[in-house]
Specification:
The structure is a homodimer. Chain A starts with a strand and ends with a helix. Chain A folds into two domains: about 120 residues, Nucleotidyltransferase, domain 5 (2-Layer Sandwich), CATH 3.30.420.40; about 150 residues, 2-Layer Sandwich (Nucleotidyltransferase, domain 5), CATH 3.30.420. By secondary structure, chain A is an alpha/beta fold. Chain A has nine helices and ten strands. Chain A is globular, with a radius of gyration of 19 Å. In chain A, α1 runs parallel beside α2 and α6 packs across α7. Helices cover about 35% and strands about 20% of the residues of chain A. In chain A, β7 and β8 form a beta hairpin. The mean pLDDT of chain A is about 95.
Amino acid sequence: MTLFGGVEAGGTKFVCIIASKPDDIRAETRFPTTTPAETLGRVIDFFQRNSRRYPISALGISCFGPVDLDTSSPTYGYITTTPKPGWAQTDILHRLSDALKTPAILDTDVNGAALGEYRWGAGQGADPCLYLTIGTGIGGGGIVNGKPIHGLVHPEMGHMRLPHDWQADPFPGWCPYHGDCFEGLAAGPALEKRWGRRGETLPKDHPAWELEARYIALAVSNLVVAFSPRKIILGGGVMANQQLFTRVREEVVRLLNGYVQSPAILEHVDEYIVPPGLGARSGVLGAIALAEQLVLRE
Amino acid sequence: MTLFGGVEAGGTKFVCIIASKPDDIRAETRFPTTTPAETLGRVIDFFQRNSRRYPISALGISCFGPVDLDTSSPTYGYITTTPKPGWAQTDILHRLSDALKTPAILDTDVNGAALGEYRWGAGQGADPCLYLTIGTGIGGGGIVNGKPIHGLVHPEMGHMRLPHDWQADPFPGWCPYHGDCFEGLAAGPALEKRWGRRGETLPKDHPAWELEARYIALAVSNLVVAFSPRKIILGGGVMANQQLFTRVREEVVRLLNGYVQSPAILEHVDEYIVPPGLGARSGVLGAIALAEQLVLRE
């Protein structure tokens, strides 16, 4: 069994595993994100300690962003303009690759999660496969024609502009760049700022959820017409509220209004817009899948 | 030189060429779209007449939609639910492929145009490359990871929902499915219905154009955050109004507000959002590029 290293580099915690696939995880650790030196030191220490017993062929990193994924760029492999103290302009890819003397590949946390779900989770065989995380922020990634979506930079699906009915919802949005973009209207902080209390404390019949489902459905329906995806996976803290799935699905069907003539939407929307099949491990298993793609490509 | 056949199957006219690349077009014809029997008969006649002198290795078809591109579907290769009289449920792919005894491949007109531009036009080397046509309707397609975007069906980018300021623009939109989606607000008929006269008769300083640029820019900026494309090509009758490009570019930069940190947007937006490099031939040359991909894949 070829083993790979996977790192899910999050803004609050890091997860590292050594595995060949989801049911073959040989070693695992997790620790809080502190300074780059300390945090990456712990990553390196984990893989070095396990290197004799579990040698890895490549390392995949699913990372909070923004990251530079342009292989022709001088800052390829860097976390770039993050507001997270100490982390801006951190060359995470080469620091780990050099220290561990292994080929390594970096992608966004959400492209990683999309790839993990596409490889082993809810998105198996579904191309395009999109993954949205709706929590403190909103991010989206996806697999199209077998590989993650990159371009100028990487998708930033949380910053789509959506219809905003100011009479029904006078909250102006909180995105420092765009005000009432998707993230500004629908991420966790929008719930808290709009209703004066954290989302997880709002009762299930609170009007907050209808509005929340509306914005998520507007974004999802826009992604449906943009990508014609075969699967849309919704993760993140806000989506832990399971009843949101039912509301979002109903509203997506209503918004598309029969235009997209596919049984996936017209008959089986409950299998089309789904939670992650890999649970909380989409990201770190996506890192394993990234490493696998790197080895297969070479 | 390997020669290919290309068909641009449009709702009002068909164009057929035999070529290896843009500067090597060996034969060409165009005729109005009438009934399927007559129109496809003329396509078959054109290629048969030229088959001895210019034998083709494969046929590519860029077609008005919706079309079924799912190779596992029983109606793969069909034009499906078009309102165009007589054309619904037409198996264009197999009728041409069987009659001409040649391998054939079908895609949407806009995926075809995107591929043509990616192969030889304004989108060379730009992956993802998106192509939007803004005319009587609005359609969009694209190349991601080297190939056209398909999934459940194909992209229908004209049906994105956008912010609609009803005070500034009380026009309700004309899309029979969605009312004020992108196409409902910004395609040619929206201009005509909103202002009471056809777009091409509106003076350049008419407020119609600022509003039009606003909607196009909202759609383009949503596509920027969804795909992180390296090039966005805008074609179609409405975009024949060249001054729209300047307005759209300015508004896209304003909408993104520095969030997407890329010189392509921050410094070179005039080379980022561009007209088709192949002019009116993006679609039919895209059909040639489709045929080329089909042969290379086999």
